[in-house]
Amino acid sequence: MSDKYEAIRLRNQLCFPLYLCAKEVTRKYTPLLEDLDLTYTQYVVMMFLWEQDGCTVHQIGDTLMLDPSTLTPLLKKLESKGYISRTRSETDERSLNIVLTEKGSALKDKALSVPEQMRCCIGLTPEEGAVLGGLIMKILRNIESTEKE
């Protein structure tokens, strides 16, 4: 006998394990980031800046999928901690340039242990992590492409 509600059972929803996993993984970062004086979202921004220093707020927001109402206070907080500097663009006064300070750059070395600690916590091999990451990025690309239609 068919159950017309099978499709909406919690156990059949991909969104639920994704939500739980994201919530729990983010929670596991909290004690690891305390030594860096960073929240998880600040850590993500700093990782972006460690790869691409000297960028605009717009570039950070686009790459990390963060809207200005989330990003602006986060960047102000990072600036108050002395990790970044925010300056108006000389060519476009509406644009803010974000640059790591010496203190922000030095934090990169302190952060080196975080990924390995998380790998141990999560319990996936590097190969499994790469596959999972690839699938999650595929989901995000698919969602993004359907929103543009």
UniProtKB/TrEMBL annotation:
GO CC annotation terms, alphabetical: cytoplasm
Species this protein is from: Ruminococcus albus SY3
GO biological process, one term: response to stress
Keyword DNA-binding attached: yes
Name of this chain's protein: MarR family transcriptional regulator
Residues covered by the HTH marR-type domain: 11-141
GO molecular function list: DNA binding; DNA-binding transcription factor activity
InterPro entries the record matches: HTH_MarR-typ, MarR/SlyA-like, Transc_reg_Sar_Rot_HTH, WH-like_DNA-bd_sf, WH_DNA-bd_sf
Annotated compartments: Cytoplasm
Keywords from the named record: Cytoplasm, DNA-binding, Transcription, Transcription regulation
